[in-house]
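Late entry, evening session. Most of the bench is empty. Finally got around to the prediction I had been postponing all week. Sequence below, unchanged from the version circulated by S.P.
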Amino acid sequence: MGIRRSHSSNKRSRILGVPYDNVTVNDAIELVERFVRDEESHTIVHLSLVSLMRARRDKNLRIFLEEADLIVPCGRYIYWAAKVLKRPLKEYIDPSQFVKLLMIQSVELGKRVYLFGGKGDTIEKAYDSLKKDIPKLFVVGKYRGNYERGALENVVTAIGKASPDYFFIGLGSPREEIWIERYIGKINAGVIVLVEGLFNLYAGKMGKHRKFTIDPASGWLSKREIPHPRSFKKLWLIPSFTLSVIAVRLFWRH
């Protein structure tokens, strides 16, 4: 399986210099189907407040984002910033539902799935929950993210032998980005989807946020974010992010 990780960055929108793809759910699903069919490796990431702010100060993470094949914006802060900067999102995408749609797509296309991430029994509980929602999900392998120190080579080899068409990795950022950079050439995976803390959500280890009806006229939107295990750390990012977006809006010129 070949490796091709490139995207025409000049077609992307940006918030504080960090890129994202302004797509609808249908756009994204259709694009992923093309990725699956071309038998090359592609990476899909979600852009949240935390990942955006981290990318601004982490050069390697920024490069990883720039080279990703699809960057899906998610969360109310990204939604708000895009609107303030007059680049409104075409659609508000719930990351947990989007990832499930990709899994449903794998069933429809008759493709293989590998689940990798989480701590302890998280991946097993997430698998059980996903199989209840998607009974025909064809999972060729699953492994927890906090594997033993000496098990790495065996884990990478096992994934490579499974040759998954969809590889869902949830090690948390930036660990999962670093992991993919190192082992993308060995895991023989097609579509690689970075899900951060979503396995915790599927496993029932994180409470679901309240949801609002999305109404373009009133501006109400879903509060669903991609989960971060240490979400309290996000709080100190909010003022900096908000002020930076407002400053760009006030002083930016065409």
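Two things to note before I forget:
The domain at 11-202 is CATH 3.40.50 (Rossmann fold).
Residues 1-6, 208-223 have pLDDT under 50 and may be disordered.
Will write this up properly tomorrow.
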